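Re: export button greyed out
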Amino acid sequence: MIGDEAPREIPDDPPPILGAWPRVYAAVAAYVAVVIFLFWLFTRAFAE
Amino acid sequence: MRALDWIVMFGWLAFIVSFGLWRGRGSSTTRSYLLAGKSMPWYAMGLSIMATQASAITFISTTGQSYIDGMRFVQFYFGLPVAMIILSATAVPIFHRANVYTAYEYLERRFDAKTRSLVSAIFLIQRGLGAGLSLYAPAVVLSVILGWPDRVTTIIMGVLVMIYTSWGGIKAVTWADVYQMALIFAALVLALGMAVYLLPHNVSFGDALSLAGAMGRLNPVTTKFSWDDRYNIWSGLIGGAFLALAYFGCDQSQVQRYLTGRSIEQSRLSLLFNAVAKIPMQFFILFIGAMVFVFFVFERPPVLFHPVEQAHVEKNPGYGSVQQSFEAAFAKRRDAAEQYLVARHAGDEASRDAAAGRYRQAQQDLDAAHTAGEHLVSREFNDTNFIFLSFVTRYLPAGIVGLIVAVIFSAAMSSTSGEINSLATVSVIDIYRRHFVPEASDRHYVVASRLATIMWGCFAVCFANFGRNFGALIEAVNMVGSLFYGGLLGVFVLAFFFKRVGANGAFYGVLAGEAAIFAANRFTHIGFLWYNVIGCVVVVAVGLAISAMTPAKTLPA
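Workaround output, generated via the alternate export path:
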């Protein structure tokens, strides 16, 4: 039969930084917003 | 290619195949062969996810696209981090807790067997086509550099990938991807460094930026909305998010990567790593294309970058006048660029603007001559895919050429290995075990998975031989995905978020969603990124409507 090895319980640990996953998601979203804003500035700086 | 290039390229290929075989040893059970025994750390999964997505097409075509059209293609990835956050919060814990081998296995638990089979079939069709296209790209490279038929190079590539993927399963694929991505990062830095270094000595990095910007090549953000425009911030954020949700959440070639994680935390981190790193990486690749453009402002490019077509076209009686126009336009553009820089250094804005006008006019003349050259070729081809390679092979020193060719091989091998591995997994778990041989031994399914890997590898090689019939390769691959991803995403949205929707709603919703996508493709000019949104919305709407008309059913816990 498939899966002869007994499947083990999958732990759901907290993130290594910021204490909770929603805070990590917020940090990633903020980072992306900043990156897009910097790209927009980059576009404006070199647009003729 | 010089001797050192051959040594670097073949040395790398030998290393990666041997390394894959070594890391894949001990994959003797289904769980270890298909899920690496759920032992993978986040960085290995994260790099493997990135490597699977970043095919050779990314390097061949994206740099060329930036040369022609500027950097606005980066907006295609703006929705990706949004998708990664949503998937980290939803799909990752759901799939892990369901303890499944494939995302489609989960659909049977949530809906029924026919929905699982339908979605598995859609995946096998679209990913099978995608695997063929991914393999075709390096065949293009080798046919250009070695003068070999691309059929031969496709077979060589396919066989190398099949060796370590069929032997070591996902563990071999993932660890080989880690090293392949490391090489890719190194080569990208080197390629950009060389593009800037090879500029004329009187052209600074700031000058190069200014020249690229004046020609509209430094345009990573386009805020103007248009349904027809494939790449603007809105299609990127909305359409790109839907595409990324479908690709990373419903495509087994990606789901299988993060199912190998040793914990939910590790799998989430692997996706969030991509959320953070993917956009800067694509920006970097596109920026290389923009710098290659500036390089060719001062160094005369060939009329056609495709060397074989260029050689053919030179024999055409009409080529003389095309070449004359091209050379005149190139000289005009170079002179205008030099005048532009002189005015820029002097701070003379009026002269700079006047020179910029001449610079752009000369570019239009050059584009017209290039198009006239393309029209001299009787068969259809796309020159964009040869721009970066032309720069690499003609101007970079020995060793670096071999390294970049090795990178293109690596990129193709990493995406193809992930694709045929996932195709084999779905074929065995969702089709073969589910419908034909449900009660065989674990060893039987490992052997079946190895054979399925080889079978899909052979299929990819065969399909790759039709790759020449597609236009710009990157858009072809994304296009194939977009025809199917909306439907896939819709059914998973129903599964995760609409508990009342039953099996019939999901099944007929998918069919309706696919019909809507194909109708949009056939009868409208809507950009393909929007197909994912259309498909997903139709699946959810039809699924909800059908469920509203049928009695509620108690869901399994």
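Chain B has three domains: 3-296+394-465, 311-380, 475-557. The button fix ships in the next patch.
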